[in-house]
Structures are given as C-alpha cells and as structure tokens.
Amino acid sequence: MTTPLETAVAGRHRPRGQPAVDFRAVSRTYAAGQHEVRALDGVTVAFPAGSWTAVMGPSGSGKSTLLHCAAGLERVTTGQVLLGGEDITTADDAHLTALRRSEIGFVFQSFNLIGSLTAEQNVALPLRLAGTRPSTKDVRAVLAAVGLDDRRRHRPRELSGGQQQRVAIARAMVTRPRVLFADEPTGALDSTAARKVLGLLRDLVTAGQSIVMVTHDPSAAASADSVVFLRDGRVVDHAVTPTTPEVADRLARLKA
Fold it and tell me: Is residue 178 a contact partner of residue 189, using CB atoms and an 8 Å limit?
C-alpha cells in the first residue's frame, strides 16, 4: 500500500544515476567596494538523486550561496549548474521562476508562513501562485503526510515551532518538487521538535525525495546520507553516513 509520504513525493521522473543537482566548476563573486569577494571558488560537486546531502562549513564558507545557486535564486559567475540534468546556468528569469514553482521546494529556518492564512491555505499557496487551482484533496493529503491534517484550519500563531516547520515542508512538497532545499530547517527549533523534523525529512528521502540541506548542527548533518564540507568557498571534505561526533570533529578542524 502506498504511504501518504510516497504519494506526496510521487510524480517526478528521477532518472537513475543522474544527480539531482550537479555543480561544475562553479564560482560566485560579489563586488564589495573596490574589492571582490569570492563566495564560491570552482566548486564541483554532485548531489545524488533520492538522497539527502547536508552542507556544512564555518561562517562565510559559502553554504548559503551554494544553496541559492543550486535553487536558481542566485546566478553563478562562472561554471554550470544542472538541475535534474537540465543546465539552468543561463536560464532567463521567467524560466527560473517556473522551475522554482514546479521543480524546486525550499524550506527556510524562519518558516516564512503567511500569518493571516491557515495551514491549509499556506500549503495551497504555491499552487495558486503558479496559476493552478489547488485540489483540496491533494493539499490535505500533504498535510496528512506531515502529520498535521488535524491542524489544517490553524494559523501559524496557533502552532508550535515544529508544527510550523512541518507546514513549511508540506508547502514545499505540494508541487512534488524534483529537489527539496532546506536552509537550517531545525535552527529555530528545540531539540524535540528538531528530531521530529529530521525524522520527517528522513521519511521523505526513504520515499524517494532528493534533499540538499545547509546546517550548522552536527546532529542534523549526521541524519543525512552524506555531508559536504566547505571552507573559503571550496569543497574540502566529504563524509558518508558519519556519526555526530565525526561531523563535529571535522567541522572543528575546519574552524581551527
């Protein structure tokens, strides 16, 4: 029998062996007065489809820039970014907007829910913005998949932080995206709520979802299938199924 999470994830063609996101010699620079800041410096890394990859590094290492470039929120200066095999490096704004509405889901640390809308209305919002009439059945099915069907009429202020983040995940999943990007998804949560959100992300990956997550928390990173470490805009380390102490130790060495 198909589970609610499998139903939520279903619907996207995910070719075997093709990365969910592929960075090829990507650099991203910013002008800072008379100087140039290189946030990413020749990054080449592939994020496997149907897998959960955590991205870690010291402050200023390029984590958020990498995530934003992968999701088409920022343009790279040089190199290529491929999303599901499609080169989005030179895509125009209209095409990037369309991709973000259908192929990409994004979860933020601060939830970014609309306070005047119910949980159900927040989840339906991406479909409305894409010009699609939301199916009540589909929206409620996604809320049920994250364990919040009974809270669908509640507004954000009536929900706990963990519940708000689960609504945010449901909102990101309602379009059945090819890749789910998460920027510090447990950063604003207590340890109990964080474990529930990480458990939900694990269930999504088990059902076939691809996830790329930026985090500063070693225990959150250790929940992922693999961890990519950045320093000074470069990939400097990679770990597969590491423990929390191993992640913490590698991160401490990068900060030294």
Answer: no
